[in-house]
Specification:
Blueprint: H1 10-22, H2 29-85, H3 91-120, H4 132-136, H5 142-160, H6 167-193, H7 197-232, H8 245-261, H9 266-308, H10 315-349
């Protein structure tokens, strides 16, 4: 990555602020224009570098995410093969899983190193509205400031994809959780085959109770996400059910159509842009919830397979998991419909 901080330095901001405050007004038009043009050029160059750095960071982090997916998918296939064969893992399978573990366990450090490199090469001075003095003194036009903001926003938008709440980060968190689920089942199979039935049963009991409790948590997270977006886009007309995911998508689309149809007023144009921004964030959140549900479905499958090997000892667990299985199927229909409706809403808001 290139160092944008070497272009837009603290010293440069101090120097240009002083010039805009004490000298700019004294200069002739030609010199004023040259100063303003150079100010804009420096700013656009720096933020262009930031945008390029953000793209590079996103590309490198996406590669890590893809490697994590490969590790999880491969481990799942090995697990399924082990279930069917009833045989211990072979040397080749263990070797593959060791490499996959290195990928998953090293992912957080690798991503942190990339984001730290991006941050280190971003202008510290530019994290505030460093151009405010030049704008206030008339040395920089509003149009120039808008150009700076637009280029700066590009880098910020790209960076948000791998920020703490960004879709890349959320996806990688899910891969880590799925890896934990797969490891737990693999370890359970190993204990069974090694004759450690008591340890295996105790571990299974603990996992099932935690899984059952997790259903309430997952529903609460989804409902909170819906409540958050309705709070943010409260200027939409019509009723939005903030707590029932089943009703949310249809109510959102109905309200949004009313808003889009009334877009003749200038203010509604601004509302539409704000609405789309919030809806894009909602779409990412909903897809994150879908990812978490996929992890739960995977764990349900793993627990169900484990219970099959427990004989009559597993009967109480079968009764405990059965209603959760029905809920998961219902959740899947709800979340699939939500993803579709919110994606439609994003497109509608952008018209």
């Amino acid at each position: 990555m290139k160092n944008a901080d070497a272009i837009l330095t603290k010293a440069w901001v101090v120097k240009t602020d002083k010039e805009a405050t004490t000298e700019w007004a004294k200069w002739d038009k030609s010199r004023q224009k040259k100063w303003s043009d150079e100010y804009l050029k420096t700013s656009l160059e720096a933020w262009g570098v930031v945008a390029d750095n953000a793209t590079e960071a996103a590309t490198r982090i996406t590669a890590i995410k893809n490697s994590m997916k490969l590790a999880v998918d491969g481990a799942e296939k090995i697990l399924e093969a082990s279930r069917k064969s009833g045989q211990p893992l072979g040397d080749a399978q263990r070797s593959w899983l060791d490499k996959a573990a290195d990928t998953i366990e090293g992912s957080e450090v690798a991503v942190d190193a990339i984001t730290e490199e991006f941050s280190r090469n971003s202008p510290f001075a530019g994290r505030l509205d460093y151009y405010s003095t030049a704008l206030e003194k008339g040395a920089l036009t509003k149009a120039a400031v808008e150009k700076i903001r637009a280029v700066r926003a590009k880098g910020i938008d790209i960076g948000n994809t791998y920020g703490k709440s960004g879709p890349l980060t959320l996806r990688m968190e899910e891969y880590r959780k799925r890896w934990t689920v797969l490891q737990a089942e693999l370890q359970g199979l190993e204990k069974q085959r090694a004759g450690q039935a008591q340890e295996w049963a105790a571990s299974l009991t603990k996992r099932i109770h935690a899984f059952v409790a997790g259903d309430v948590e997952w529903q609460a997270e989804l409902q909170f996400a819906l409540k958050k977006v309705t709070d943010n886009i409260g200027f939409l007309t019509g009723h939005l059910d903030r707590t029932e995911p089943k009703n949310f998508g249809a109510a959102l689309l109905k309200s949004l159509k009313v808003k889009v149809d009334a877009k003749a007023k200038a203010k509604s144009e601004l509302d539409a842009k704000a609405t789309q921004t919030y809806l894009v964030r909602l779409a990412a959140t909903i897809k994150s919830s879908k990812g978490k549900l996929k992890t739960r479905v995977m764990e349900f499958k793993a627990l169900s397979e484990s219970i099959k090997d427990a004989g009559h000892h597993g009967e109480p667990f079968v009764k405990m998991l059965a209603p959760i299985g029905l809920k998961l199927a219902e959740h899947q229909k709800t979340i699939d419909a939500l993803v579709k409706d919110v994606d439609t809403a994003v497109q509608l808001a952008g018209r």
